[in-house]
Amino acid sequence: MRQLTIHQGGAMAAAPSRAAAVAAATASAAASVAAAATSSVASAAAAAAAPLAAEAITVRYGRRTAVENVSLALREGTVYALLGRNGAGKSSLVRCLLGQQRATAGRALLFGRDAWRHRATLMAQVGVVPEHPDAPPAATARHLAHVCRPLYARWDAAGFEDRLRRFGVPADVPFGRLSKGQQRHVALALALAGSPRLLILDDPTLGLDVVARRAFFEELIGELADRGTTVFLTTHDLAAVERIADRAGILAGGRLLVDEDVERLKQRFRRIWLPGAQAAGSLAAGGAAAAAPAAGTAAAVGPGLEEFAPVARVRRDWGVEAVVAAFDDARFRAWQGGAAATAAEVSSLTLEEIFVALAGDAATRPPAPTAGDAP
Q1: pLDDT interval class at 339 (50, 70, 90)
Q2: Which of 293, 364, 283, 361 is nearest to 319 (CA)?
Q3: How many distinct structural domains can be found in the chain?
Q4: Which of 6, 118, 119, 317 is most buried (CB neighbours < 10 A)?
Q5: Which of 249, 265, 281 is at the close of a domain?
């Protein structure tokens, strides 16, 4: 199905970003990206080979910036999860990637071709499950399949009917009478029936209960195992997506803070606890409710922690709890062996915890970036 929905437009306010903290947090990732981009020819070749790519996309609505200088590229067969809070700019970026909206600056590429200019031909290779599945209320799933079938060269009619049976969706009940979960399952069945090379899912489980969400992702996992389809999805269901995503991007205030393989992301982001006896001296008394020192200073994060690039920290009665973005096991053991950190402990983080640390509490964010700041 080329398109089963009309996405809502409108202005989006640019949320504040974690400019200073994230600059340190993503230093190692930025270095590798910079090295890969030293040759403009090599960069262009990589983008051309990618099923989906964004080249310095910026989207503005009047004076408001929804997406600022976002670049990314998907490898064939990759499952890419774009994460962001409401208003982060995800929907605007997805519309540009689908060729539904022209970027203010930059461009989106599908299979190496401009998505805005060549959308009519490119969408025959793309399956879409929109944020709000929309179809004529009187149309049945079977009728929708009949309408969509001529648009795809490799339409899988048997697979479509089989998915409806597995989902428990009646093929001859009007779309408007189906539940939200059933409507999303119809959208997924239609998207997969075209045998797409690229599947774009825009928050596909929004509003579904836990059982329906699980069924949706289990079907998706099964399809990915069978086909190796490239997938780009936005979602708030971070626990589910962590099981299937190869790579993740975190969007905040319209900026792409992180664009990295999930396993690498989880290796370098960790939580460190530094008990009060060793964190004291640089911290004011008063516990978690006391006024916090400036982010990034030794007083804010505990002595020695700054070398691990803290991006979030909380002062507790017992000491300091920090999320760091440049964890290294050997350096941590060496630091732990010193007198200042003998009782320090470390633990791993889930993708959701990393996301909250980078895009969470607005009260701990630095001021919003100004135009011309580096992404």
Answers
A1: low
A2: 283
A3: 2
A4: 119
A5: 265
